[in-house]
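Page header: ASSEMBLY MODEL / two components / 616 residues total.
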Amino acid sequence: MRSLLTMLGIIIGISSVIAIVSIGDSMKGVMDDIYKDIGKNRAYMYVYNIEEFRSTDFFFMDDLEVVKERFGDKITYLGPSESLRSDVSVKKNTVKLNMICVDSGFDKVQHVKMLYGRMINKSDVDRKSKVIVLEQKAALQLFNRENATGEVIRVKINNYMEDLLIVGVYKNEESPVLSLLQGQSPYEESYVPYTMAFPSNYGFYGLDIFIAENQPVSDVGNEIVSYIAKLKNRSNENYMFYTVEEDQETLNGIVGGMSIAVACIAAISLLVGGIGIMNIMLVSVTERTREIGIKKSLGARTKDVLFQFLIESATLSAIGGVVGTMSGIGLVMLGGSIISLPIVVNPISIIIAVAFSMIIGVFFGYYPAKKAAKADPINALRYE
Amino acid sequence: MSKMISIKNLNKIYKNGSVEVHALKDVNLEIEHGEFIAIMGQSGSGKSTLMNIIGCLDRPTSGEYLLDGIDISKQEQDDLSLIRNKKIGFVFQAFNLIPRTNILRNVELPMIYAKVKSSKRKQRSMELLEKVGLGDRVNHLPNELSGGQKQRVAIARALANTPPIILADEPTGNLDTQSSEDIMEIFKSLNNDGTSVILVTHEPEIARFADRVIVFRDGAIIEDSQKEGVLK
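Prediction written out in full:
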C-alpha cells in the first residue's frame, strides 16, 4: 500500500510525460498526413502588396506558358489557383458543386483515385472541352449511382449556363483529420479544365505550383518570383511565394515547442515522485535498522547493503515507470479513439521513460542507501 | 598450535555525552580451538561488550585482540564483515531472523555474502535445517515458528559458512525450559564436532553445559574455572 502511494508520483509523472510526447508525435504524424494530402512540394504564388494594380500585374495564360517553358525541369505542375461554384440539378436532385480549375497533369502531382472514366487531360485543356470529373459523392447524389460517366450536367460558369460531359468519377481520399479540420462543407468536389472555365484573356490572381521532388522548394520559388517580377516590370516584393513545406515547419515548431513546455511541467511531477521515493526509502531504512544490523553481523559489507537499498528504490520507481508508461499510453489511446486521431507511440520514448524512472530511483535512493550502509552494526543491532 | 583468541590488556570506554563508562578494564583472556565457554555476570558487568569485541562487531578502545593471529583492532569495517562472515556464527537472544523472508533464505544469507553459488547454497541450507530438525518447514516465515524453532533456524544460519566459532548471546533468554535444553544439546553436539562455542548467560543451569566458566564483574574477570575432568 505504502509503496503503491510512493510509486503513484512516478506513475503520474511518467504517464503524463508519455502522454504528452505521444500526443505531440501523433499531432506531427497527423499534420504530416495533412500536408501529404495537400502536397509537400506544393507552393502558392500570388500578387501581393501592390497599391495601384495594373491590369498586367495578374497572371495570364500566356504567362503560365512562358513560366512553364522557362522552369520546365524544376516544376512538375503549374496552373491557376482557382475554383468556381455552381448549383447542379438532375431531376429532383440538387448538389452544390465546387469546380477546381486544373491544368492537365494535375493527377500526376496529386493522387486522384479514379473510379470510372478518366481525369482531365491535355486535349481537354488544349481544346477547352466542356468536360467535368465528379467526386463520387456528387455522382451518387445526382444520379443515385457512382458511375455517372457519359451523363451531362448543366452548370453556371461566369454567368453562362454550360452543359458539361462527365468523363470521370473519382474518390476523395484525404485523411479523416483534414476533413475534420475543414468541417462539413456543403460543396461536393469536381475538376474542370481551366481553359474552358475562363476566357483566354483572364488574369489569374494566384498560381498553384508543384516543385520537382529533387529541387529546393524555396530557391525555385525565389527564381520564379524574380522571373515574373521582371516580366511584369515589378519588384520581387510584389509577388508572394508561399510553400507548404515552410508552413509545416512553422506548425511543427509550434507543436514541438508546446510539447516540450508541457513535458517540462510534467517532469516536475517526476521530481516530486523522486522525492517521494527518497522519503519512503529513508523511512524504510530507519524501520529496518535492526535488519541492517543483522545482515552486517552475518557478514554483509557496506556495498552489499548499499546495493540492496539502491536496487529496492530503483525497482520501486522502475515499476512505477512501467505502470506509468502503460497508463500514459492507455490515456492517449482512449483520447485518440474519442476524437478518432491516429496515435503514434514512439518505442524510444517508452525506453527512455522507464530508464529515466530507474535513474530517478537510483538518484533519490542513493542518500538513504548510503545512510543504511554506513550504519554501525552494534547500534543497528540494538535498535528497537 | 597458536591460540584461537588472544586478548591482552583490553579496555573499552564508552562515551555518552560527558559521562565515560569503563565497560572493560584490562581484560586478559586466551581461548583455544574447540572450547565450550560460558561467560557469566550480571547485566552491566561487561560480558556483552566483550562478546561484541570477540564477535568483531565492536573495536576495543585500547589493548590487543588477536583472532587466529589477525589483529582485529587494525581492520577496516568491510574487512571485519568478511571476518565475521567466515569465522563467526552469531546466535542472539532475540533470534534476529530477517522478517518476511522464508527460513531457507535466512539460512542462505551468510553464504550469499560469501558468494557461494546458488545451487550449493540451497543444498547446504537444506542440510543445515534438516540437522536442526526443521527440514519440513523451509518455506515458512520466521513469524510462523515458535521461539525454539526460531532459535534453531538462527543456529542453522550461524553454521552456514562452517565458522570455527559460535558466539551465542543469551541464546535461551527468551525460551522455555524444554526449548532451552534442546538448544543447549545442539550446542553441545556442535562442540563435540570441534566447533568452539562461546555463550553469554546469567543462568547457572545453562552455564553448566560449558567446560569452562568465566565470570565478569565491573568490567573485569573475577573467576575463570575449568570444569573437572576436561582435558585442556
